[in-house]
Structure to design on (102 residues):
C-alpha cells in the first residue's frame, strides 16, 4: 500500500494549520509551503541556540554555588567533628572521675 503526502490527514483540531491558501481542494504551492517550513525551522534553531546559551550560563552559576557550598560544608564538618571529639573526651574524663580511675 502506498500513499502520497496529500493522502495523509492532519491531526484533529489542527486542520487550519494545514489548510491551503487557495480555495478548498486546491493545494498551496510547494515553494510557499517550503518557505514556511524553513522559516519555522529558523525560529526553532534560534530558540535552541538561546536555550544552550542560558544553560551554559546556568551551569557556570551552579558550579560556583556548589564550590561555595563545599567550602562551607567543609568548615561546618570540621567544627562539628571538633565538637564531637571534645564532647567525647569530656564524657570520658567524667566517667574516669566517677569510677575513681583518676
Amino acid at each position: 500500500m502506498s500513499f502520497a503526502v496529500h493522502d495523509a490527514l492532519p491531526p484533529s483540531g489542527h486542520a487550519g494549520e494545514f489548510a491551503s491558501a487557495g480555495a478548498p481542494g486546491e493545494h498551496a504551492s510547494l515553494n510557499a509551503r517550503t518557505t514556511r517550513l524553513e522559516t519555522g525551522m529558523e525560529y526553532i534553531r534560534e530558540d535552541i541556540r538561546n536555550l544552550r546559551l542560558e544553560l551554559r550560563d546556568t551551569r557556570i552559576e551552579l558550579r560556583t554555588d556548589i564550590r561555595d557550598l563545599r567550602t562551607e560544608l567543609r568548615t561546618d564538618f570540621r567544627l562539628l567533628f571538633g565538637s564531637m571529639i571534645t564532647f567525647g573526651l569530656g564524657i570520658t574524663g567524667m566517667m574516669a572521675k566517677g569510677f575513681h580511675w583518676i
Summary: The chain is about 70% helix and 0% strand.
